[in-house]
Amino acid sequence: MTMTSPAGAMAASIETAHHATSLIRQAVERVIDGKPDVVRLAVTVLIGEGHLLLEDVPGVGKTMLAKSLARSIGCSVRRIQFTPDLMPSDVTGVSIYNSERGDFEFKPGAVFSNVVVGDEINRASPKTQSALLECMEERTVTVDGTTYRLQPPFIVIATQNPIDMEGTYPLPEAQRDRFMARLSMGYPSAPAELEMLDRHGASDPLDTLAPVVDAELVRQLIATARGVYAADAIKDYVLALVRSTRTSPDLRLGASPRAALHLLRAAKAFAVTEGRNHVLPDDVQALLVPVLAHRVLPSPDAAIQARTPEDALASLLTTVPVPRAR
Is the pTM of this model over 0.70? Predict the structure, then answer.
């Protein structure tokens, strides 16, 4: 009988995970043209056990990205169309009296799914938005004093338009902090937009998109990402970056300890998509803005000078020392 060493088993897991994440990316890229970096970050959030916020102007493919990522993995998917009249019970569920049984019966809401696509989340009231707080952080839902556990994998992929658009509400800071990353699609390049006209004009590419992985494999990918090695120097680097946001003169609200945890988890997942079993400083740097920018707020002076949180974070990358190989 041959025994596999822990290092050999980890190498095999990384190889399998790298292949699986490549399949997911290729499937999504058949729908989303010309945005490979955005797709890679979306897959990173998926296997990093986080939640994804897609924020951009209407019509650039936010909902299409969310739906294609959901369809590429063979998991249960529910969509919530957030509107001003949406109630918290529509999201979490409600207990209804069953006259035949003589007691209350729980009817699960839309969050009881592996993938929850929240379309235009900032069009619902803050009260309804806050219905997602518990399930996003604790993977549980409490209704009428009873707590129900959500089955892994569980990811919320929410889209929203900028808050200065008509008929929108800003997300509560507590909820923004629960999203591992925020991505902006941006406008496609001219060749990508031309290809989109050719491919999407005749048919919907989502109709032919089939799952390339199942729920069990996604759980394995998440476990593999957790086991990726992060040296103490990398952890110190993550903490130094996060803590520096709390003293930056350009920011009046720094990143939370949860942000540090999300940054490390995302860096481990990003390493898996690169086929590595260890985290590099480059991984942390590539993810700093997507993971932290939506959690911090600019100071009044920075706002007057039109300096964004992204500018402040980019500046920190030049001032916080990068760990060197020994």
Answer: yes
